[in-house]
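RECORD TYPE: inverse folding
INPUT: structure tokens
STRUCTURE:
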């Protein structure tokens, strides 16, 4: 039996140190795991909230459309990183590898100041203008290397291959509605693109297109519908966070869909 003066043997001290190290190692692993779980949970909540806001915003603008560009329509949005199509080339509605949704939105106000100032020819009231609008993906790495200010979501090397969803707008400089016959040759370049949503899942085999467009030709009221098929994906703390959650390896189940029917179809002159 030890007395108070005897203390501990070297072996006992080594055992105590070893046990303490084991406890510290377990505690640190638990802390790291908890921190990673908290990061993943925050990333998931952010993706969920931002995705819902973006979907509702796009749907609200689609509902104000007077014309939706159909599958096969080619669009020239001009140059620059804000309109850089993944893979290069021109934008074509219905292209699976680089989808785009484009439409003419009706004026938000029909009273008050007109779109154009009759004297200067400058746009005085944007809300009174017909507006060309487009939504499309841009490769995240290319956007981040060029964007500045609030338009730059920040470098994220682990997610460089993800897409960003961009909103492109251009006011049509006229107080009169555009004629349907002119829309195919309408110059829509010179507008501006801004970041709408981060961490969009790039196209993969069997993943539904980002936009599904159903439209008669000619377009008639009640027979045009746009569906946004959104899938978000982000690597956070080494783990993939997906919205919606993926319970299957089948990409057809990876989307959250929201449809909208334009209510101003049929209001443009022929």
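DESIGNED SEQUENCE:
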């Amino acid at each position: 039996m030890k007395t108070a003066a005897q203390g501990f043997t070297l072996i006992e001290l080594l055992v105590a140190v070893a046990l303490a190290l084991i406890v510290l190692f377990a505690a640190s692993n638990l802390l790291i795991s908890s921190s990673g779980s908290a990061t993943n949970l925050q990333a998931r909540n952010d993706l969920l909230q931002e995705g819902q806001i973006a979907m509702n915003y796009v749907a609200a603008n689609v509902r104000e459309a007077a014309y939706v560009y159909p599958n096969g329509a080619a669009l020239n949005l001009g140059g620059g990183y804000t309109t850089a199509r993944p893979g290069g080339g021109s934008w074509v509605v219905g292209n699976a590898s680089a989808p785009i949704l484009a439409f003419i939105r009706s004026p938000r106000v029909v009273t008050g100041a007109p779109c154009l100032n009759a004297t200067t020819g400058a746009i005085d009231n944007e809300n009174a203008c017909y507006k060309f609008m487009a939504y499309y993906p841009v490769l995240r790495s290319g956007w981040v290397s060029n964007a500045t200010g609030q338009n730059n979501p920040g470098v994220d090397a682990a997610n460089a291959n993800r897409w960003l969803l961009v909103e492109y707008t251009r006011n049509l400089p006229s107080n009169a509605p555009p004629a349907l016959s002119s829309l195919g040759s309408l110059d829509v370049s010179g507008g501006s693109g801004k970041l709408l949503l981060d961490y969009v899942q790039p196209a993969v085999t069997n993943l539904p297109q980002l936009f599904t467009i159903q439209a008669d030709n000619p377009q008639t009221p009640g027979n045009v519908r746009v569906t946004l098929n959104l899938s978000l994906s982000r690597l956070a703390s080494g783990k993939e966070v997906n919205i919606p959650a993926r319970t299957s390896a089948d990409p057809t189940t990876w989307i959250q869909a929201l449809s909208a029917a334009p209510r101003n179809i049929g209001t443009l002159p022929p």
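NOTES: The mean pLDDT is 90.
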